[in-house]
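Weekly modeling sync, notes
Attendees: AB, CL, MP (scribe)

Item 1: holo prediction request
CL wants a bound-state model with pyridoxal-5'-phosphate before deciding which constructs to order. AB pointed out that an apo prediction alone won't tell us much about the pocket. Agreed to run with the ligand included and paste results into these notes for async review.

Input as submitted:
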Amino acid sequence: MSRFWSPSVHALEPYVPGEQPRMNDLLKLNTNESPHGPSPKVIEAIRAVTDDTLRLYPDPTALKLRETIARVYDVGVDEVFVGNGSDEVLAHAFVGLLKQDGPLLFPDITYSFYPVYCRLFDIASEEVPLTEDFRIEVADYDRPCGAIILANPNAPTGVALSRAQIRDLLDRHPDCPVVIDEAYVDFGAESAVSLVREYPNLLVIHTLSKSRALAGLRVGYAIGQSALIEGLTRVKDSFNSYPLDRLALAGAEAAIADTEWLAVTTQQLIASRTKLVEGLEALGFTVLPSHANFVFARHQSRDATDISSALRQDAILVRHFRSERIRDFMRITVGTDAQCARLLTALRTIVSRNS
Ligand SMILES: *Cc1c(COP(=O)(O)O)cnc(C)c1O
């Protein structure tokens, strides 16, 4: 605390990212990073621009990257926005679209950055409870509001809405902006990108951090009709004109263009997820139906705090949230088959110990 802080800083409750400790033989299953690594073409592309052109500013409009995204998703260049990680794209959407007269709605259990941004940007919000079985019920959003944001698949549950359900939500709310955060959509859920043409109030946000295995590069993007994109661009150019550096632009272009790498690595991950779920269920866990690169699991008798600290003793990190409704669950990132096997072996010992 300091008397030199701006007064509003005292009231902030910053997001707490999953820890990134240094430990020998560490198995990190706590931040949903990819076990497969990015396309080799990404590394090649970054190497190719690692030269003295770094003295020059990058393209502030990120035109080539936006053209690549537009081509792959079959939308217009003016329907694409890019930013420094989807967290930054989200921040600009909170400022540029989601701060309305009525409250912003989001689920009581969702990406914990949403309430953080509401505090930072002074946005009134209302949490809509998930159902007993941790699903989003679209009809529950039928209440006065200024805007809506959902993660689909939701985090940290991994549970997804279908495209038809997103369409239903949009039909019920033609007059407020609706943002769908599709950070995990490539792992088997249905994207709402194809609905952008029909719904002028829909913005879909993606990240390169999860399915493209580039959490370290910090690139995210949004797809929506050009008027929405223009709103985001106004905010961005009031904040930072060059959010993506030259290396990130080159790497991101190569990552988006390599659709085959995406298809192969996400299929591998989905196969590993299926096996992991079977393994966990055999050990007495209940696992929510996941369309993400993580699973959300609770044990029938063992405490999640105890299990996660025992795993830590074995140098395996998973994420445990303390909030009331989900304190019995652990969020476990899906690793390679070998990593999942190491996790299951450790868990077998832990859950069979006398407590
Ligand atoms: C990981 C994640 C993000 C942020 O991703 P970055 O692009 O790394 O900032 C956004 N939304 C959700 C739901 C996520 O899980």
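Recorded for review: The longest strand covers residues 202-207.
Action items: CL to compare against the apo run; MP to circulate these notes.
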